[in-house]
Amino acid sequence: MTSIFRTAMGPAFDRLHPALRRRFSVGLTSGEACTGRGVMDRIWHGPAFVKPFLALGGTRNILVPRAGRNVPFMIENVPYTDGFGRETVSFVRTFDLPGRPRRFDAQMVLGPRGDRVLDYLGTHQHLATDLHFHAEPDGSLLIRSGTHRFREGPVDLRVPDLVGATAEVRESYDDTTGRFRIRVRVVNRYFGPLFGYEGSFTASYTGIRGCGVRPGLRPVREEARA
Fold first, then answer.
1. Which residues are 107's β-sheet partners?
2. Residues 97, 69 contacting (CB under 8 angstroms)
3. Residue ranges, the chain, pLDDT below 50
4. Which secondary-structure segment (H or E) carries 211?
5. Can you list the positions of beta strands (E) in the chain?
6. How far apart are CA 16 and CA 8, in angstroms?
7. Own/partner pairs for 58-61, CB < 8 Å, 24+ apart?
8. With contact defined as beta carbons under 8 Å apart, do 117 and 109 qualify?
9. Which residue in 95, 41, 46, 92 sits closest to 69, CA to CA?
10. Do 174 and 200 meet the contact criterion of CB atoms below 8 Å apart?
11. E strand or H helix at 7, and its extent?
12. Quick one: which of 159, 66, 151, 154 has its CA closest to 104?
């Protein structure tokens, strides 16, 4: 089976833990979607000045504007073909925070050269970044983001380092508990850690022909520029 993640990683994909290989094999070829359910032990924010930016991003389901502990969590990885004919896999995260649930939306496609994954963020895909996937010696997965770009109409700008950030995602599988563990850190090179979360979840798989793409999972607007 070939997924966008296997293609981007090449032979390194086979060094991942078997549970991670299956989770990142979801796609149109496998015919499977993956739903993870669990608990975020902690969702944290950096300095106080970060909160207005998180609140603004929260209006478009980018990042999470509230902190919390022991937060019920769901991630939906569903493959589909987007409006430009590209295989896409959703990474829609829902955090059941007090007051109302909060979402952090991303849609991933294979980069045009097939050596990276392109990550579109939010309901309108205004932000895009390259993701680089690495298999660690212990079989875990390390994902690092590259340069962020802002797209709206004719506007196509590189986000300056002063206001931009890099994301690091570490995902592993615990054979003892049968759970995936995830840790996310978003860091600005000048101001330090801005946002992150860590926790664990279990995964279940369904055939996409039966479940399809539920209403509200796809973005409101899709961006063609890579």
1. 90, 120
2. no
3. none
4. helix 208-211
5. 32-45, 68-77, 79-81, 87-90, 92-95, 102-104, 106-110, 117-121, 127-135, 141-152, 155-158, 166-174, 179-188, 192-207
6. 14
7. 58/102, 60/122, 60/123, 60/124, 60/126, 61/103, 61/104, 61/105, 61/122, 61/123
8. yes
9. 41
10. yes
11. helix 4-9
12. 66
pLDDT at 190: 87
Determine the length of the chain. 226
Q: Return the structure tokens found at 122.
A: 């939010």
Confidence at residue 1, expressed as pLDDT on a 0 to 100 scale: 57
Residue 144 confidence (pLDDT) = 97
What values do phi and psi take at 84, rounded to 5?
Answer: -105, 10
CA distance 33 to 40: 21
Residue 29 half-sphere exposure toward CB, CA atoms < 13 A? 10
Tokens 């902190």 — which residue? 67
Residue found by looking up tokens 């520029």 in the block: 225
Residue type, 202: T
